[in-house]
Amino acid sequence: MSTNKNYPKSFSHIGITVPNIKEAVKFYSEVMGWYIIMEPSKVKKETETAIGKMCIDVFGNDWTEFEIAHLATSDGIGIELFCFPNGIKEAPEFNPFNTGLFHFCVQDPNIEELIDKILAYGGKQRMPIREYYPNDKPFKMCYVEDPFGIVFEIYTHSYELTYSSGAYSK
């Protein structure tokens, strides 16, 4: 008899590159309510510390320094913000058809209020708020964009609740 050693891994964090670290920390802490774990700080390319060595392993040798900040969601998921001085400051064109990270999703039962805050801080609403099960269940969603052009989605209910009802099957 064999045992299944596979188990669902938990999500630790997501890394987001932004054009201005201070503006991004302000947006994500004030609009999303994420906790600031580490204020923006500089990381310089060097081989004397573990973080310096790790960053060289990840980014290679074509950099000298960057800024980083750490935030966390209410459920402990980390948000790692990066700002590289020589990087392109515009978000890439939104193209969900290409391979790569398409979006991330946050959950807020008051989707309308969150969208209003996003708009007030310079973000965009990319579509109308939609319901998964109109006249049956109050599950809503909407795609939005932060002020830096990063696309993300908002759900009113958990992923499990939204899809456990057999979404799209009836």
Automatic annotation (TrEMBL):
Domain VOC: 10-157
Coiled-coil segments: none
Gene3D superfamilies, sorted: 2,3-Dihydroxybiphenyl 1,2-Dioxygenase, domain 1
Record InterPro entries: Glyas_Bleomycin-R_OHBP_Dase (IPR029068), Glyas_Fos-R_dOase_dom (IPR004360), MMCE/EMCE_epimerase (IPR051785), VOC_core (IPR037523)
Cross-referenced Pfam families: Glyoxalase
Domain of life, source organism: Bacteria
Keyword annotations of the record: Metal-binding
Protein name: VOC family protein
Organism: Winogradskyella echinorum
Classification lineage: Bacteria, Pseudomonadati, Bacteroidota, Flavobacteriia, Flavobacteriales
